[in-house]
Amino acid sequence: MSSTQYCTEMKNANFRNRESHSYSKNYTITQKEYTQIVEAIDAGKYSWACLLILRFAGDNPFLYIPYRTANRLLKENQLANDRDCEAP
Predict the structure, then answer these.
(1) C-alpha–C-alpha distance, residues 33 and 82, integer Å
(2) Partner of 54 for a Cys bridge, out of 15, 20, 21, 59, CB 3.0 to 4.6 A?
């Protein structure tokens, strides 16, 4: 099997894997969660908003967003939340 065929097979397998579980869930986003998503968009944090949407919809963001990126987003926004809680 050539490398091109292998890459095509892997992409198709990933697509089928994502497709099989993506729409099987039926979650409702709460008003608080919706507000968090809108605040992230307003702040220009589009990647964070995407991660929140996936998380609140019941999906695992690590299936769609590269691990290092998702991990960085979680750390950055956890630090921001910690600072907000400490503010007088």
Answers:
(1) 18
(2) 59
